[in-house]
Design brief:
- The structure holds 2 protein chains of 2 kinds.
- Chain A is an alpha/beta fold.
- Chain A has 2 domains: 2-119, Rossmann fold, CATH 3.40.50; 128-223, Winged helix-like DNA-binding domain superfamily/Winged helix DNA-binding domain (Arc Repressor Mutant, subunit A).
- In chain A, 42% of the residues lie in helices and 24% in strands.
- Chain A has helices at 10-20, 34-43, 60-69, 85-93, 106-119, 153-164, 172-179, 186-206; strands spanning 2-6, 27-31, 48-52, 54-55, 58-59, 75-80, 98-101, 128-130, 133-136, 141-144, 147-149, 169-171, 213-216, 220-223.
- The longest helix of chain A is centred in the C-terminal third of the chain and has 21 residues, at 186-206.
- Chain A is globular, with a radius of gyration of 18 Å.
- In chain B, helix 1 runs antiparallel to helix 3 (126-160) and helix 6 (246-276) runs parallel beside helix 11.
- In chain B, 57% of the residues lie in helices and 19% in strands.
- Chain B is of the alpha+beta class.
- The longest helix of chain B has 51 residues, at 3-53.
- Classes of the chains: A alpha/beta, B alpha+beta.
- The interface between A and B is large, with 39 and 41 residues.
C-alpha cells in the first residue's frame, strides 16, 4: 500500500509518516507543496492520499479536481484546520473519501486511512482477521473461533478501531473524540469508554477468545497478540 | 417618532405661536384705529357744539341731534380747561347687559369768561364685532396654515425625503457578509448625495475590515490547530515507545491532556468569534424536534450512564435559522442538562413553536450561587460550563431569542423564547 502525505507543515507530516510507516504493507511518501504533490501523483501510483487543503502554493481542493479530471482512482482523505461544515462538504463533493479536522489523533487518521483502503478493497480481501477474531466489515459481523459475536454498534466500532491500530497504544482521548465530537465531562467519558471496552473484552473472552485488549496504565489501551 | 410627525408637531407649534402674536397685534392695531375714528367723530361733534354755544344763552338737546347722549352745561363761573377721553362700562337696564361707551369730557371758558362743559357718551358696539372678526380670521388662518403644513409635509416626506428613506431601507438590508456592496439610487439633492457617498465609503471600509478580521480569525485558528496537531502527534508517537518510566508517562499524559483541553478551548473560542462575525448567515427551515431527537441519541451513552429519565413533549414546526447554529444550540443545552444532572435524575424537554424549555434535576448546593445567566457565568462553578453557556447566549443574541435560566429547589430550567 502506497500512501502520499501532502502537508506543508513538515513536523506534522513527519509525525504522520512515522506513525504510518510502522504499519504492515504500508509505504509512505511526503510532499510539502502543491506542486510537489502533483509531480508525485503523476510519477507514482498511490492507494491513498492524505491531503492538507491549505498549501502555500495552491489550494489542495484543486488536486481533488485534477484527480477527478485525470480519472485517477485514489483514495483521498482531506485534513484541514478550517473546521467548518462548508469546508467538509466542499471536500467531500469534490470526491474526497473522508475529511478530518486538525488537530486529530494519529490513531484516528490511521483508522480512517485503513477504512478507505478497505472500502476500496485494495487488500483484495473481504475479511479482517486477527488470530481467532474474524471481521466481515461489509456485513458488520464479527466471529471469534467461527462463532458469531453479538456486539453493539459502539463495541463493533471500537473493535474496528483497535484492529486498525494493532500493537499501538491508543489514548483514551482519541477514543473519546472518535465517538463524540463534543467536549463532554472528561471523567464521564473515560468511564463510558471503560465500560464499552470492558463489555467488548468480556464478549470476546466468552466465545473463547484471548484477552487481547490491555490497559496501558494512565494512557489508554492496546490491542496486541504478543503476551 | 417619525420624522413627519415630528415635523408636523413643530410646524403646528410655530403656527400657533406666530398666529397668536399676529392676533394680538392685529387686535391692538384695529382697536387703535377704531378709537381714533370714534374720538375724531366725537371731536367733530364737540367742535360743532363749541361753535354754536359761543353765542347762545340756552342749549338745545344735542342728544337728539347727534343720536347719542350729549350733555352741555353752561356755567356761571369760569372753569379750568379739561379735555379727556375714556372708556366707560354702563349697565343697560333694558337689555340687562353691560355696554362699552366712549366718554368725552370737555371744559372751557367762553369769550365772556364763563365756562361750559360738554360730556359726550358714544356707544362702541362695533368693538365686539371687531373682536369677533379678528378671532374668526385668525382661527381660519390657523386652520388653513395647518392644512398647508400637513399637505406640504406629506408632499415633502413623499418626494423630498424619498432618497433618505431609500437609503435607510438599503442600509437596513445591508449585510456585512454578503458579497454585494451598497449602491444607492441617484438623487439631485446635494446633502443626500453626500450622505450616500459617506455611507458608501464607510460600508466599503467596514466590509474590507470585516473580511480582513474574518481571515485573521480563520488564519489564527488554522495556525493554532496546526500547532496543536504537531504537539498531539508528537506525544502520541512518544507514547508508543517501549520502556517509558512511570514518571515520563505521567509528564506526557499531562501534556497530552492539557493539549486536548486547549483544542476544545480553541474550537470553542473560534466558534464564539464566528457567531459574532456573523459567519452563520445562511438561514433555512429547521425542524428543531428532529435535532433534539438526534442529539438525545448522540448523548445516549451519557444519559444511560447517569440513568436519566427523558421526557419530551416536542411539537413539529419549522423555524428559520442556520442549521449549524441550531445544532450547536440544542447540543449545548442538552449537554448542559446532562452534565449538571444527578444520578437517576430526569430531563424534561418541552418544545413548542414559541419556546424550548429544558428542565433537569440537579444538585441542591448549587442553588444559592445563581439566579440568572449572568451570575452563572461569573461564578463559573463548573469547568467548561462558561463556554457552553456563553455559546448558548450568543446564539440567542443572534436571533433575538429570550433566554431565562432559573434554579429552584435543585431544578434547573433553561427556557429559550423564539419571539
Amino acid at each position: 500500500m502506497k500512501i502520499l502525505i501532502i502537508e506543508d507543515e513538515d513536523k506534522l507530516a513527519q509525525s504522520i509518516f512515522d506513525y504510518l510507516k510502522k504499519e504492515e504493507n504500508m509505504t509512505c511518501d511526503m510532499a510539502g507543496t502543491y506542486k510537489e504533490g502533483l509531480i508525485k501523483i503523476e510519477q507514482f501510483e498511490y492507494d491513498c492520499i492524505i491531503l492538507d487543503i491549505s498549501l502555500p502554493d495552491g489550494n489542495g481542493l484543486n488536486i481533488l479536481n485534477w484527480l477527478k479530471e485525470e480519472k485517477i482512482n485514489t483514495g483521498v482523505i482531506v485534513i484541514s484546520a478550517k473546521n467548518t461544515t462548508e469546508n467538509k462538504i466542499e471536500g467531500l463533493n469534490l470526491g474526497a473519501d473522508d475529511y478530518i479536522a486538525k488537530p486529530f489523533h494519529l490513531s484516528e487518521l490511521n483508522a480512517r486511512v485503513k477504512s478507505i483502503l478497505r472500502r476500496r478493497n485494495f487488500y483484495g480481501e473481504t475479511t479482517l482477521t486477527f488470530d481467532e477474531i474474524k471481521i466481515i466489515p461489509l456485513e458488520h459481523q464479527v466471529f471469534v473461533n467461527d462463532s458469531l459475536l453479538n456486539l453493539t454498534p459502539k463495541e463493533y466500532n471500537l473493535l474496528i478501531y483497535f484492529m486498525s491500530n494493532k500493537n499501538r497504544v491508543i489514548t483514551k482521548e482519541s477514543l473519546i473524540s472518535h465517538f463524540w465530537e463534543n467536549d463532554f465531562e472528561q471523567t464521564a467519558s473515560y468511564d463510558l469508554i471503560y465500560t464499552h471496552i470492558k463489555n467488548l473484552r468480556h464478549k470476546i473472552i466468552e466465545k473463547g477468545g484471548k484477552d487481547y485488549i490491555r490497559t496501558v496504565y494512565g494512557i489508554g489501551y492496546k490491542l496486541s497478540s504478543l503476551q | 417618532m417619525k420624522l413627519q410627525s415630528r415635523t408636523n408637531i413643530y410646524n403646528i407649534l410655530y403656527t400657533v405661536i406666530i398666529l397668536t402674536f399676529t392676533g394680538v397685534f392685529l387686535q391692538f392695531t384695529l382697536f387703535r384705529v377704531y378709537y381714533k375714528q370714534i374720538d375724531d367723530g366725537i371731536k367733530t361733534e364737540r367742535e360743532i357744539i363749541e361753535d354754536e354755544i359761543e353765542n347762545l344763552d340756552t342749549v338745545p338737546d344735542y342728544s337728539i341731534i347727534f343720536g347719542h347722549q350729549i350733555e352741555v352745561s353752561l356755567l356761571q363761573t369760569p372753569v379750568t380747561k379739561n379735555d379727556v377721553y375714556k372708556n366707560l362700562m354702563l349697565y343697560n337696564q333694558r337689555t340687562k347687559t353691560s355696554d362699552l361707551y366712549r366718554h368725552h369730557i370737555f371744559s372751557k371758558n367762553r369769550k365772556n369768561g364763563l365756562g361750559y362743559t360738554i360730556s359726550i357718551l358714544k356707544p362702541m358696539n362695533e368693538l365686539h364685532k371687531f373682536k369677533k372678526i379678528v378671532m374668526i380670521s385668525i382661527s381660519l388662518a390657523s386652520i388653513f396654515l395647518m392644512l398647508a403644513f400637513l399637505s406640504t409635509g406629506y408632499f415633502v416626506n413623499k418626494r423630498l425625503w424619498y432618497p433618505f428613506y431609500k437609503t435607510l431601507n438599503d442600509l437596513n438590508r445591508f449585510n456585512l457578509d454578503a458579497p454585494a456592496t451598497l449602491s444607492f439610487s441617484e438623487t439631485k439633492i446635494n446633502e443626500f448625495k453626500q450622505l450616500n457617498q459617506i455611507i458608501s465609503d464607510f460600508s466599503l471600509k467596514l466590509k474590507r475590515d470585516f473580511v480582513r478580521m474574518k481571515e485573521f480569525t480563520e488564519n489564527l485558528s488554522h495556525e493554532i490547530n496546526t500547532m496543536l496537531s504537531i504537539i498531539i502527534s508528537k506525544v502520541e508517537l512518544l507514547l508508543q515507545k517501549e520502556g517509558l518510566t512511570a514518571d515520563q508517562v505521567e509528564h506526557f499524559r499531562t501534556i497530552y491532556q492539557v493539549t486536548n483541553s486547549l483544542t476544545h478551548l480553541n474550537n470553542g473560542l473560534l466558534l464564539l468569534a464566528k457567531i459574532d462575525n456573523q459567519y452563520y448567515t445562511s438561514v433555512e427551515k429547521v425542524e428543531l424536534a428532529i435535532i433534539v431527537n438526534e442529539h438525545l441519541l448522540i448523548f445516549e451513552d451519557f444519559i444511560n450512564q447517569k440513568n436519566l429519565k427523558i421526557n419530551t413533549h416536542l411539537t413539529l414546526f419549522n423555524i428559520n435559522m442556520n442549521k449549524s447554529l441550531a445544532g450547536i444550540l440544542i447540543s449545548n443545552i442538552i449537554i448542559n442538562s446532562i452534565k449538571h444532572n444527578i444520578k437517576n435524575g430526569y430531563i424534561e424537554i418541552t418544545l413548542t413553536n414559541r419556546s424550548i424549555c429544558i428542565e433537569n434535576s440537579g444538585l441542591k448546593e448549587e442553588e444559592k450561587k445563581q439566579e440568572n445567566i449572568e451570575q452563572y457565568n461569573d461564578d463559573k462553578p463548573f469547568k467548561s460550563l462558561g463556554l457552553g453557556m456563553e455559546i448558548i447566549k450568543r446564539i440567542c443574541r443572534v436571533y433575538n431569542f429570550s433566554l431565562i435560566y432559573s434554579n429552584k429547589n435543585a431544578i434547573h430550567t433553561i427556557e429559550i423564547g423564539f419571539e
